């Protein structure tokens, strides 16, 4: 190989190496410039911080009264924040306690005001009622409403105490006419905030079926109503539509109690009157007349006696005999 060819190859290798070195240096410089420019942009326009949005802590059903434990604050990107969301700092959670959900909310779903009804708003009570149910108010007192310890959301039995007329006179009776009815309001309060003192309400509003509203409306006219508080662990079977006058109602737990079952001094209204004891009587025959003389001292003429004979033909005589016979009930 001649010296010219060798020199040309060496020159080509040197040029290629220099070109690669210069290209690498240029790429590194460009990359550093891009990174620096991006850092400057981040410093100039910082990211928007997340805001706290009111969301459902637990699933909320349609018609459910919202409680404090049903709500919480959750971070939400401010860039994707609709104007209908409720933001922390503008309104507290307490403003929405006692509201009723128009539609269901899933866990973590933001609460929007158009989907809830605030207490005192028009249509609030109608939003509380479930589909097909009715609201009816009944009078309440300290003794008939468990001394003010019944609140909205509780479930109660309804008892009727009234006077019955029987052959033995008037008797009092108490019977269960409704079971597991849902209380939706006490007076005009549909919620109970922690720290509230028990307050004896004058009326209780119940959620009932159409048939049950007829029963309770008539029962108010018949006697006194009492509300009996049920356990929260009882199943929700208050949507039954019972016929309280039916014999089957006893099998469903609709019992009754007469005053004779409370006091032994009161005779049962269903017991038959005791037959009177047999009495003894004396019949006196004087001449042609016959008189019945009871042993209790009363005397009366016997209408079944035969006509008196002619006393001129038969002399005066007196015959006495006794007979025991059952008396006829008066």
Summary, kept brief:
With 330 residues, the protein is α+β, with helices and mostly antiparallel strands. The chain has helices at 3-44, 124-128, 210-222; strands spanning 51-56, 71-76, 100-101, 116-117, 134-139, 155-166, 169-186, 203-208, 224-229, 256-258, 279-286, 289-294, 299-301, 318-325. It folds into 4 domains: 1-35; 51-124, Alpha-Beta Complex (Type Iii Antifreeze Protein Isoform Hplc 12), CATH 3.90.1210.10; 133-261, no CATH class; 279-325, no CATH class.
Features:
330 residues; alpha+beta; Type Iii Antifreeze Protein Isoform Hplc 12; 4 domains; six-stranded antiparallel sheet; 3 helices; 14 strands; 18% helix; 28% strand
Textual characterization of the structure:
The chain is α+β, with helices and mostly antiparallel strands. The protein folds into four domains: 1-35; 51-124, Type Iii Antifreeze Protein Isoform Hplc 12 (Alpha-Beta Complex); 133-261, no CATH class; 279-325, no CATH class. Helix content is 18%, strand content 28%. It contains three helices and 14 strands. The chain has helices at 3-44, 124-128, 210-222; strands spanning 51-56, 71-76, 100-101, 116-117, 134-139, 155-166, 169-186, 203-208, 224-229, 256-258, 279-286, 289-294, 299-301, 318-325. The strands form four sheets. Strands 5, 6, 7, 8, 9 and 10 form a six-stranded antiparallel sheet that branches. A hairpin with a 2-residue loop joins strand 6 (155-166) and strand 7. The longest helix has 42 residues, at 3-44. The model is unreliable at 321-330 (pLDDT under 50).
């Amino acid at each position: 190989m001649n010296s010219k060819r060798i020199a040309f190859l060496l020159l080509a290798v040197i040029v290629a190496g220099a070109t690669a070195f210069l290209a690498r240096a240029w790429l590194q410089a460009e990359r550093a410039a891009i990174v620096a420019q991006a850092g400057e942009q981040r410093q100039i326009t910082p990211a928007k911080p997340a805001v706290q949005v009111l969301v459902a802590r637990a699933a909320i059903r349609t018609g459910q009264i919202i409680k404090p434990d049903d709500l919480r604050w959750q971070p939400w990107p401010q860039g994707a924040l609709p104007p209908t969301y409720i933001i922390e700092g503008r309104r507290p959670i307490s403003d929405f306690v006692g509201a009723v959900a128009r539609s269901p909310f899933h866990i973590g779903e933001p609460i929007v005001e158009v989907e809830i009804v605030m207490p005192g708003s028009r249509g609030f009570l109608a939003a509380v009622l479930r589909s097909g149910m009715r609201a009816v108010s009944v009078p309440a007192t300290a003794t008939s409403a468990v001394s003010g310890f019944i609140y909205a959301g509780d479930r109660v039995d309804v008892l009727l105490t009234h006077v019955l007329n029987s052959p033995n006179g008037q008797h009092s009776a108490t019977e269960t006419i409704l079971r597991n009815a849902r209380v939706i309001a006490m007076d005009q309060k549909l919620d109970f905030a922690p720290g509230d003192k028990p307050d004896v309400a004058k009326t209780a509003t119940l959620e009932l079926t159409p048939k049950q509203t007829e029963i309770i409306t008539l029962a108010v006219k018949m006697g006194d109503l009492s509300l009996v508080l049920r356990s929260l662990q009882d199943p929700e079977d208050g949507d039954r539509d019972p016929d309280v006058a039916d014999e089957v109602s006893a099998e469903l737990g609709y019992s009754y109690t007469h005053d004779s079952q409370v006091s032994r001094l009161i005779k049962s209204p269903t017991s038959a009157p005791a037959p009177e004891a047999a009495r003894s009587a004396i019949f006196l025959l004087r001449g042609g007349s016959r008189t019945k003389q009871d042993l209790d001292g009363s005397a009366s003429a016997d209408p079944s006696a035969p006509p008196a004979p002619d006393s001129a033909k038969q002399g005066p005589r007196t015959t006495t005999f006794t007979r025991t016979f059952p008396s006829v009930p008066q």
